[in-house]
Amino acid sequence: MRGTLRSSWLVRAAWLTSAALLTAGCASAQPKQAFHPQGDSSTQPASTPAAGGDARSDGVTMPPFGKNLQVVMPSWRPASHGQLAAVTADKNFLLAMLYSQYRGGRDHRWKAYVARQIRPDIGKELSVRSVITESFTGTIRYSHLSAFADPALKGDIDVAQCFDNSRSTNTNLRTGKPLPDTTPANQHFYRTTIVMGQAADGAWRVVSIYPAIFYPRARECKP
Question: Whole-prediction pTM value?
Answer without folding.
Answer: 0.79
